[in-house]
Write a structure and sequence with these properties.
- The structure is a homodimer of 389-residue chains.
- By secondary structure, the first copy, chain A, is an alpha+beta fold.
- Chain A folds into three domains: 91 residues, 3-Layer(aba) Sandwich (Rossmann fold), CATH 3.40.50; 59 residues, Dna Ligase, domain 1 (2-Layer Sandwich), CATH 3.30.1490.20; 194 residues, ATP-grasp fold, B domain (D-amino Acid Aminotransferase, Chain A, domain 1, 2-Layer Sandwich).
- Chain A is built from twelve helices and 17 strands.
- In chain A, the strands form three sheets. In chain A, strands 9, 10, 11, 12, 13, 14, 15, 16 and 17 form a nine-stranded antiparallel beta sheet that branches. A four-stranded parallel beta sheet of chain A has the order 3-2-1-4, with helices on one face. In chain A, strands 5-8-6-7 form a four-stranded antiparallel beta sheet, sandwiched between helices.
- In chain A, strand 11 and strand 12 form a beta hairpin.
- The longest helix of chain A is centred in the middle third of the chain and has 17 residues.
- Chain A is globular and about 60 Å long.
- The N and C termini of chain A lie far apart (50 Å).
- In chain A, 52% of the residues are buried.
Chain lengths: 389, 389
């Protein structure tokens, strides 16, 4: 449906009021747009900064339909809209991107694993499991420890359990969620390949990055991935572009990868702007947020050129006590006039992602130090340098 | 007054709903803020994209007061708030930056000229004029043509008249506005020195740019000003920083300059983000919009480092007929994946500033061509290359 706003430009709606919507709205402003947001609450991160906010449930077809009727294109800041509701919107004639057929590979890890294995894409050994007997049978092949994952609904390490024996597996099985089991991959590090694809099939790939996790939460992203063999980097980009094509993704596709002694394995997929691409806001000529909008609007892709030899993004996690962010910003800006800060307007709770900082530089170690120290200062108001790995 | 919003961060309010507010809101989002906007109408450029919009008149003390009570700091996207109302807000205890004492130098050209002349800053020869006799007396010193300027209220070439003789002068005098007369300066080109200053006196200067005007409207800005002698560039930056100090400016100060065979003369001052600084959005590590917010919040200034050897900004002016901007964006992005586009959400009318584009590059001629062609395409849908000078 054609729904136009100022300057005769299309209305893009994003389901979800989190920081991804917030930063997409920032990008929308430059393109002459104003992102329409379907948020749970008026204090959601994106709802605080956008003019066009509808309050509603992303699990309600009525709310989704009312929202879609006010948009020319609907897209997502998370994977939690039930796939049958996405299909219902499509059947009602709404343009939803990525579409339901693509989106299910980012919603259900078992569907994703099976599809990727079918395409011959390297993934960890996996199997669906429902009983302890299933898990023990799989352990007979891959050994302990192994990984149990909720097929749906996990994020930031939630829904993933490394289990060392049958007793630990049984405790996870008791939760009753639909599970798959995976081999515990002896990984060297984690990488991410971020690409975008338009409906006509044009693809664009940013440099492959290294992602550093703590307790299952991404804390640092380095672009490009230090010391990554050029052939492996190209292989990762080609893999991500191929997956975007095979799965008919429109928008940003993030492919989380394990680097092992034997090569790359695909860990997870996300079909939206992704934490591994926050560095592009300040560090690439086209940010993932602008690119996602271009893709869903079928505009040609923007240049993904990196704007400095090294770009490092560090997430700001909530710390303990009163953050007094106003004072911490004073201190941080005084110390590092070149650091770029992004805060999400969210209530600060321990461990919650409430912002990120980005440093650009010529020297890798120095650039990492600046980003990590900056994020740590916003978290706890000290200048302690936390060693990363 | 302390007025805090999400994350305990201060509420910054901007009077005026134009594109400067719109782009300041974009910058505010990164800092964890959401700009509060006092707009004339809900379809104003900034009102389309910000959550916190108050509708009201910038000439109404009641509206300004109600707005200021919802803000910790009030600042401006234009100079049209009467100075006595700014003073009244200050007297009521509101933090208004830049303050009324500074702002009058951006509101009244005669006050500005007299102050700058008193500081020994080079300005064109000028005098207040009320009668034809006054103008003729001044013409006896500087000759014809000379320039008549409305002391207040002008912008984009409005309120400035180049008059060739007494008859033309008489026609301007008949308008009844308060006028000053200035010598018609034999300028080589126009430059602008953009700086920002915090309440504590910290200053930051971006590179000095060349501005290209057509019919009194800025159409192109090149950073740094091509071929500008290093001594003159430093002199212009120091002059702007000194003026910011002397006038106690807080926020961005744009100093428009004439370059002549005998050196630099100050033409105009603006105490807000300025068209000559739009290139900083994509071309500098800290944009003028972020810097203005940092300044009024008394945060330390950000790095003004330029992000490419050449950055060229070209204004998108409204053309004739239906702009079909959606289609033109398709075409433009296909042709130049590295061009950065900013559209303001404004109704397109001939000659109106409705957006700008920015090109970054290593080669001056190529970078200018990309920016100028891109802006021309958004204006009229053709690829005609309009020679600039």
């Amino acid at each position: 449906m054609t729904v136009r706003a100022a300057m005769g430009l299309p209305v893009v709606g994003m389901v979800g009021g989190g920081q991804l919507s917030r930063m997409t709205h920032q990008a929308a402003i430059a393109l002459g747009l104003s992102l329409r947001v379907l948020a749970d609450a008026s204090h959601d991160s994106a709802a605080l900064v956008a003019r066009g906010v509808d309050l509603g449930e992303h699990t309600s077809l009525a709310d989704l339909t009312a929202f879609a009727e006010r948009c020319e294109v609907v897209t997502f800041d998370h994977e939690h809209v039930p796939n049958d509701l996405v299909q219902a919107l499509e059947q009602a004639g709404h343009t939803v991107l990525p579409g339901s057929a693509a989106l299910r590979h980012a919603q259900d890890k078992l569907v994703m694993r099976e599809r990727l294995a079918g395409l011959g894409v390297p993934v960890p050994a996996f199997t669906p499991v429902a009983t302890l007997r299933d898990v023990q049978g799989f352990a007979g092949h891959v050994g302990w420890p192994l990984v149990l994952k909720a097929a749906t609904g996990g994020y930031d390490g939630k829904g993933v359990w490394v289990v060392r024996d049958a007793a630990e597996a049984e405790a996870v099985l008791a939760s009753g969620v639909r599970l798959l089991a995976e081999e515990h991959v002896p990984l060297q590090r984690e990488l991410a390949a971020l690409v975008a694809r338009s409906p006509g099939g044009q693809g664009a790939a940013w440099p492959v990055v290294e992602t550093v996790q703590q307790d299952g939460i991404c804390v640092e992203v380095v672009s490009p991935a230090p010391g990554l063999d050029e052939d492996l980097a190209v292989q990762a980009q080609e893999l991500a572009l191929r997956l975007a094509d095979e799965l008919d993704v429109v928008g940003v596709l993030a492919v989380e990868l394990f680097q092992t002694a034997d090569g790359l394995l695909v860990n997870e997929l996300a079909m939206r702007p992704h934490n591994s691409g926050h560095w592009t806001l300040d560090g690439a000529l086209t940010s993932q947020f602008e690119q996602h909008l271009r893709a869903v609007l079928d505009y040609p892709m923007g240049s993904t050129a990196q704007r400095a030899p090294w770009v490092v993004m560090a997430n700001v996690l909530g710390g303990e006590g009163d953050p007094d962010l106003d004072r911490r910003l004073h201190m941080l800006f005084g110390r590092d006039p070149g650091l770029k800060v992004h805060l999400y307007g969210k209530d600060v709770r321990p461990g919650r992602k409430v912002g990120h900082v980005t440093a650009l530089g010529d020297d890798l170690a120095e650039t990492r130090r600046r980003a990590v120290e900056g994020a740590a200062h916003l978290r706890d108001g000290r200048w302690t340098h936390h060693a990363q790995r």
